[in-house]
Amino acid sequence: MADNDGPFARSTAVRRRGGGDAAARTTGTDATPGTTVYDTMIVDGWDIGGNANGGYLLAIVGRAMADHLGRPDPVTVTAHYLSPGQPGDATVEVTTIREGRRFATARADLVMGGTVITTLGTFGDLSDGEGALRVDAAPPALPPVQECTAMDDREGFPPSFMDRVDLRLHPDDAGFARGEPSGEARVRGWFRFPGDEPVDTTGLLCVLDAFPPTVFNAELPVAWVPTIEFTAHVRARPAPGWLACEFTTRFVTGGFLEEDGVVWDATGTLVAQSRQLALVPRAG
Amino acid sequence: MADNDGPFARSTAVRRRGGGDAAARTTGTDATPGTTVYDTMIVDGWDIGGNANGGYLLAIVGRAMADHLGRPDPVTVTAHYLSPGQPGDATVEVTTIREGRRFATARADLVMGGTVITTLGTFGDLSDGEGALRVDAAPPALPPVQECTAMDDREGFPPSFMDRVDLRLHPDDAGFARGEPSGEARVRGWFRFPGDEPVDTTGLLCVLDAFPPTVFNAELPVAWVPTIEFTAHVRARPAPGWLACEFTTRFVTGGFLEEDGVVWDATGTLVAQSRQLALVPRAG
Q: CA A107 from chain center: how many Å?
């Protein structure tokens, strides 16, 4: 479904086992009826501290689901993260649940030994996007890109995933890396792929999980926040150019936190929302 | 899993096919390995205009998932709504995806002829709930229950689901029913089950989809908003008493809207969040 050949598209490529096209619903070896198996590879370098970024993994699964269903756009996808993804060969197993006129629903697992992520998604075609009836929010107030803080210019930090994407944080939200959190559980910034590789709607699944955790700015004793569940809603195909992104957290309670994301394209159009539930490990 | 015998508990009861207990993971007829089949009934009167309320249906599935997994609390559940649920006999088919120490993940389908809803959930035990590290929100500013607007006191309206629950809307948010929407895409109010039947964490799945659509207050030409996808996060077991609920929508764009819910218990503790993606049918 990728309409380009950049590093992100190549790093999320999937190959239907047994060949055939989407309409044929070719079934791979060991598959149950209605299931297609795709071969893929978790590419080295899309990791944070050795574990592949969750949004990158979800984009791989999204490509397989879109191909299997013959629908290009992930209108809504939910993933439960079960075990860390390591570089190497993997498979995606996609099973149709319902095919409707406008949307189709499938479940899919990313498997590498055990199941890395399990997902449920409804796909469609957003090419004839309708306009906005009501928008009670605005893109984040970001300084120009060149005045924001790149995430790839520090010795040893950030981790290698940050070299695969081009993140520019709002300077007010970038202090956590030098031990000066803003005090607000919020991270805002610009996103693009290096070399201006286009971000399609599957690429948005990566954008929505690409930024540092909001809680890093919250002055809490939290070192990492493993994702339990992540849901993306894609509202529109993004226009070319930088994406303006905002992630916020309101509740760090019961050992959990939620993180809400909103992504706007260069024309000021809302293109995607996300919410994830993550664990807040007890300190010490 | 229901620890009471009230109307909601009885209306969401599930019976493991073939008997046996949760630990035995009894497999029903026609089931794939690791799958348990439950018999249930979509009870008449939990509908809105003839179609069973989505949160009620999700609670039925949640009971089956909790029993199958042997974990009482739906930490996060996502449902995709595929076809309307009608009163009558139905089955829930639950399949384990992963059992961990602290959480277990399963998928489940509610089937009545075809699949009514398909779900993915991670369950655990919230009995030793940790406290709050950070809360950047407050319960909605609701007048006392007796000053709010009951949803069961109008001739012919509201539909029968509203007789199964006890909703009291903030007076400022209740005008839509008489053609006087507030102008804000928001609905706030109190919730309980009639007779003070306890709301357990599975009951929260019903609470989170019980209120009228936010968009009814938004002065848009929208008659109904069919849910595509619904995700609940349960943060804590609710204390007895009225639940304070707030639902908001920020984006009605691209033919879709999201609706975000927050539920607080009588002690002022956040107990659940939700987000759903719904269609905004073209008028006319």
A: 17
Q: CA-to-CA distance for B150 and B166, rounded, in angstroms?
A: 7
Tens-digit pLDDT profile for residues B159-182: 589 889 999 999 999 999 889 999
Chain A environment of B126 (Cβ under 8 Å): 254
Could you give the domains of chain A?
Answer: 7-124 (3.10.129.10), 145-279 (2.40.160.210)
Return phi, psi of residue B6, to 5°: -80, 180
For chain B positions 220-249, those within 8 Å of chain A (CB to CB) are 220, 228-229, 231, 233, 235-236, 249
When computed from its CA atoms, the radius of gyration of chain B, rounded to whole angstroms, is: 18
Instruction: Give the C-alpha separation, A156 to A90, whole Å.
Output: 29
Nearest alpha carbon to residue B213 among B21, B53, B68: B53
% of chain B exceeding 70 in pLDDT: 90
Q: Which of B278, B199, B182, B276 is nearest to B244 (CA)?
A: B199
- Cα torsion through B123, B124, B125, B131, rounded to 10: -100
Q: Is pLDDT above 50 for A143?
A: yes
User: Do the Cβ atoms of B28 and B37 come closer than 8 Å?
Assistant: yes
Cβ of residue A217 closer than 8 Å to a chain B Cβ: no
- DSSP notation for B57-71: HHHHHHHHHHHHHT-
Q: What is the pLDDT of residue B219?
A: 86
ipTM score: 0.94
What type of residue is B134?
A: R
Judging by beta carbons within 10 Å of its beta carbon (0-12, 13-18, 19+), is residue B98 exposed, middle or buried?
middle
Q: What phi and psi values does residue A7 have, to the nearest 5 degrees?
A: -60, -40
Q: Which two tokens stand for residue B266?
A: 């009588």
Chain B within 8 Å of A35 (Cβ-Cβ)? no
For residues B126-133, average pLDDT: 88
Q: Does A136 touch chain B (CB under 8 A)?
A: yes
Q: Give the pLDDT of residue B133.
A: 92
Q: Is B154 helix (H, G, I), strand (E, B) or coil?
A: coil
- CA-nearest of A85, A241, A250 to A168 is A241
Q: Of A7, A40, A171, which Cα lies nearest the Cα of A109?
A: A40
Q: Which residues, numbered 72 to 111 in chain A, qualify as contacts with chain B under a Cβ-Cβ cut-off of 8 Å?
A: 75-76, 78, 80, 82-83, 97-98, 100, 103, 105, 107, 109
Question: Mean pLDDT across the stretch B191-210?
Answer: 97
Place of tokens 């399609």: A200
* Terminal alpha carbon distance of chain A: 45
Q: Which of B184, B97, B127 is nearest to A115 (CA)?
A: B97
